[in-house]
Write a structure and sequence with these properties.
- The chain is of the alpha/beta class and about 325 residues long.
- The strands form two sheets. The chain has an eight-stranded mixed sheet with strand order 5-2-1-6-7-8-11-12, sandwiched between helices. A four-stranded mixed sheet has the order 4-3-10-9, with helices on one face.
- It contains twelve helices and twelve strands.
- The protein has two domains: about 170 residues, Rossmann fold, CATH 3.40.50.720; about 160 residues, N-(1-d-carboxylethyl)-l-norvaline Dehydrogenase, domain 2, CATH 1.10.1040.10.
- A hairpin with a 4-residue loop joins strand 3 and strand 4.
Length: about 325
């Protein structure tokens, strides 16, 4: 079983280290030459909630350096690079190879257009990680993962992939992976967007009542879009029952939702710095288009208003362009 992971960022580097530690034959494709050299020299140092690991993993610096086929190709790049990377990965594939998209949004259709439905695997990522340097990655939170293929397709290789991913976190195969991904999309949209405009971790931010209300409104709009798309969204984790959001006009249910958000936000995620905020701090373009931007696009497609998601998406684009500062004062704009 030969595995190629493309993109050794926080998520990709964590996967690579844990899969390699479990004894699997995994290589990395990292097109940043300096990063490739550093990985080959130092390996990947992973530490945090799952322990400490130091894994020496072979890293390639370009497609041209690779002249072999792989059973599994894991694409852990940003969404903006997905199509180009998938196209370049075609030369590495066997007839029964699987290609796993590790982006945090819902991207299976784009991936399947290039590699084919019977090779495409979607994943709901169940852990958090922060990249402190090219070779130093901190795993910040644990959970469970789901994998699945379009239309519930289930070849034998999917079971092999499931065994591999269970070395990282408890992983289940889902016949309706889009439902699982949408569930994660909601929490990602809430956490990433609110952190990006305020510059704070969730634990600090949720001390502000305005942030609590914003968090719930983002999620509620997403649930109305899901209903229009005929997606029955499952709970996320043990506590986030999204269906309660549809009852928020009822004061008792609104209070319950706030209590759940505070419990989750100030325990599991309280110290996490979301990827969108990390990107802004590095001066990079974010992936807001596959979080809140996706909710807005689907809302337009299905005629569901999403004014709060639209506003926060535009605010983050303004930050990207240098037209807006990251500050808790941004919350005031939702209450004018």
């Amino acid at each position: 079983m030969k595995i190629l992971l493309i993109g050794a960022g926080a998520i990709g580097g964590t996967l690579a280290a844990l899969i390699h530690n479990a004894g699997y034959d995994i290589s990395i494709l990292e097109i940043n030459q300096a990063a490739r050299d550093e990985i080959n020299e130092k390996g990947i140092h992973l530490y945090g909630v799952k322990g400490e690991f130091h894994e020496m993993i072979k890293a390639y610096g370009s497609v041209d350096e690779i002249d072999e086929k792989f059973d599994i190709v894991i694409i852990a790049t940003k969404y903006s690079a997905l199509k180009a990377v998938a196209q370049s990965a075609l030369k590495f594939l066997k007839d029964d190879s699987l290609v796993v998209g590790m982006q945090n949004g819902i991207c299976m259709e784009e991936l399947a257009e290039i590699v084919g439905k019977k090779r495409t695997v979607g994943c709901m990522i169940g852990f958090g990680a922060t990249k402190h340097s090219v070779t130093d990655i901190e795993m910040t939170s644990l959970g469970e993962m789901y994998i699945g293929m379009p239309d519930g397709y289930h070849p034998p290789m999917l079971d092999e992939l499931n065994k591999i991913y269970n070395c990282v976190l408890p992983t289940l195969i889902s016949d309706e992976i889009i439902r699982r991904q949408y569930s994660k999309l909601i929490i990602n949209s809430c956490i990433n967007a609110t952190a990006a405009i305020t510059g704070e971790t969730l634990g600090v931010m949720l001390d502000d009542k305005r942030a609590q209300d914003l968090f719930l409104t983002i999620a509620r709009e997403a649930m109305h879009v899901a209903k229009a798309m005929n997606i029955k969204v499952p709970k996320y984790g043990k506590l986030l029952y999204y269906n309660l959001l549809m009852l928020m006009d009822n004061k008792p249910y609104n209070a319950i939702c706030k209590a759940i958000v505070l419990l989750v936000g100030k325990t599991k995620y309280k110290d996490v710095k979301p990827s969108t905020l990390q990107s802004l701090e590095r001066g990079e373009k974010t992936e807001i288009d596959i979080f809140n931007g996706y909710i807005v696009r689907m809302g337009e497609k299905y005629n569901v208003p999403t004014p709060v998601n639209a506003k926060i998406t535009e605010m983050i684009r303004e930050i990207e362009r240098g037209e807006r500062k990251i500050t808790m004062d941004n919350l005031a704009e939702f209450y004018k």
